[in-house]
Write a structure and sequence with these properties.
By secondary structure, the protein is of the alpha/beta class. The chain has 2 domains: 192 residues, inorganic pyrophosphatase (n-terminal core), CATH 3.90.1640; 121 residues, Diaminopimelate Epimerase, Chain A, domain 1 (Roll), CATH 3.10.310.30. Helix content is 36%, strand content 17%. It contains 11 helices and 11 strands. β10 and β11 form a beta hairpin.
């Protein structure tokens, strides 16, 4: 189906139902939160009853969004007519063991998106799921309130890396401009997202940068549970640290390893600049995760040193594969042209 057909089908599904559960992935980011709460405002404007549930806490900077205070962390006792999952490639990605609902709807924009729900709308060309929710609001001819526009603007702002990632286009700026016309104060949102960091997050950034390693054009660092404790930081404070690693001149791939409470498990954030041949979504998919060409993630077990060794070995194979410029979702194991990424 085309996007227009998917939106029409989605609106028909919504019109036939009254109660909805909205959720998104564990460790929620700006697109997960902004698109979920923005969709809540949209559905309520259409006369629907909505619950938004996340398995993990909401980072402090998003508390400025109207409606975030209504997010719960337990699934509703009453079975909803439909559950809408945003930015998830599986139900497990939500952090909940199951999603009880009479019908499931999957809306995603990741290359790693999968058709696991009763209805699936996946658009890898969308700059954010928040932009997809915006398209639904426009198609439904629902007036975009300031509360809704704040949420959708936050989703787009954060998931495009402040309008820096390759998926940013003229239509992205047109969308953002319209949301500002709908009442969003762009400066207020930017202040909340980027200039309201708690001291613990800044101390944690310092710890990560002090331990960074560089090999060729790859940079990586590790945040341990001890680092979190010493900085007085939370797991949510790790958000954005990897962007500092990829910001350096000459670096084409950056990896942040965050140790989990289970000490032999690490959550990995991977970044690339998107202007060369490296697609980090292929790296993440190879190790059981997923995401975008420039921003992906996965979870691995082992020591930090052994995980880094596996990643560097795979990156070397990937970048010496002639097919590496094309996303295929398959492991890479064939030799090809020489790469200097790890030289």
């Amino acid at each position: 189906m085309t996007n227009e057909e998917s939106i029409r089908a989605l609106l028909n599904l919504i019109s036939e139902r009254n109660t909805f559960l909205i959720t998104s992935h564990a460790r929620p980011d700006g697109d997960a939160i902004g698109s979920s709460v923005g969709l809540m405002h949209l559905l309520e404007a259409m006369g629907k009853r909505v619950t938004v549930a996340f398995s993990d806490p909401i980072p402090e900077q998003f508390q400025c969004l109207d409606g975030v205070e209504r997010i719960v962390h337990n699934l509703p006792a009453e079975l909803p007519d439909a559950a809408i999952l945003l930015e998830c490639d599986s139900i497990q990605r939500t952090g909940f063991t199951s999603i009880p609902a009479a019908y499931t709807i999957n809306i995603d924009h990741h290359l790693s998106g999968r058709n696991y729900a009763d209805f699936n709308w996946i658009d890898p060309r969308a700059c954010a799921v928040g932009a997809m929710v915006y398209d639904v609001a426009i198609a439904a001819k629902v007036p975009i309130s300031t509360a809704m526009s704040d949420c959708l603007y936050t989703a787009v702002l954060t998931d495009t890396g402040s309008f820096n990632y390759p998926g940013t286009s003229a239509s992205t700026f047109a969308l953002a401009g319209h949301l500002i016309q709908c009442g969003t104060d762009a400066n207020r949102i930017a202040q909340a997202m980027y200039f309201s960091n708690p001291p613990g997050k800044v101390r944690l950034l310092g710890a990560a940068l002090s331990k960074m390693h560089i090999k060729g054009e790859v940079c990586w660092s590790v945040i341990s549970q001890d680092d979190l404790a010493l900085a007085g930081a939370t797991a949510e404070d790790c958000e954005g640290v990897v962007n500092h690693l990829i910001s350096m001149a000459g670096i084409e791939a950056a990896i942040l390893l965050r140790q989990q409470e289970n000490l032999d498990e690490y959550r990995l954030s991977l970044r690339s600049k998107g202007i060369g041949k490296l697609d980090v979504s292929r790296v993440a998919e190879h190790f059981g995760g997923g995401g975008h060409r420039t921003a992906s993630g996965c979870t691995l077990r082992g020591t930090a040193a052994s995980i880094v060794e596996r990643l560097l070995h795979y990156l070397d194979a990937l970048l010496n594969d002639p097919a590496s410029q094309t996303h295929t979702g398959r492991p890479v194991n064939s030799p090809g042209r020489s790469s200097t990424l790890l030289a």
